[in-house]
Automatic annotation (TrEMBL):
The RRM domain, residue ranges: 1-71
PROSITE patterns noted in UniProt: RRM, ZF_CCHC
SUPFAM superfamilies reported for this sequence: Retrovirus zinc finger-like domains, RNA-binding domain, RBD
Protein name: Uncharacterized protein
GO molecular function, one term: RNA binding
Length: 119
């Protein structure tokens, strides 16, 4: 199971995160990008424990955010829907999370006419 780690300082190194996250279980993958990272554990329980314990932790001066990664922290394949992960359709045509678009109606405006008499 993969975790997304956000709000990292730009000088965060992989060893900084490895030192923090390897306490909770065996890591499959640790990938540090510019300002964020992905950490993948073999066991979902380890990932859950790490998320609970490290969310809000200060790393190199920044308070980090730790959440479940969408799509396991990996880019979808070229022909794969990024919402459901299946091939054969695009996200805009995905039926797995389709919401009906409803237009909200504006409240009716009521006009009150006042007759003003000047003396």
């Amino acid at each position: 199971m993969a975790l997304f780690i956000g709000r990292l300082s730009l000088d965060t190194h992989p060893r900084d995160l490895e030192h923090i996250f390897d306490k909770y279980g065996r890591l499959n993958r640790l990938e540090v990008k510019r300002g964020y990272a992905f950490v993948e554990y073999q066991d979902e329980r380890d990932a859950s424990d790490a998320m609970k314990e490290t969310d809000g932790l200060r790393v190199r001066g920044n308070r980090i955010v730790v959440e479940w990664a969408k799509n396991g922290g990996r880019k979808p394949a070229e022909n794969q829907c990024f919402k459901c992960g299946r091939e054969g359709h695009w996200a805009k045509d995905c039926r797995s999370s389709r919401r009906e678009r409803r237009r909200s109606r504006s409240p009716r405006r009521r006009f009150v006419f006042v007759k003003v008499v000047l003396c």
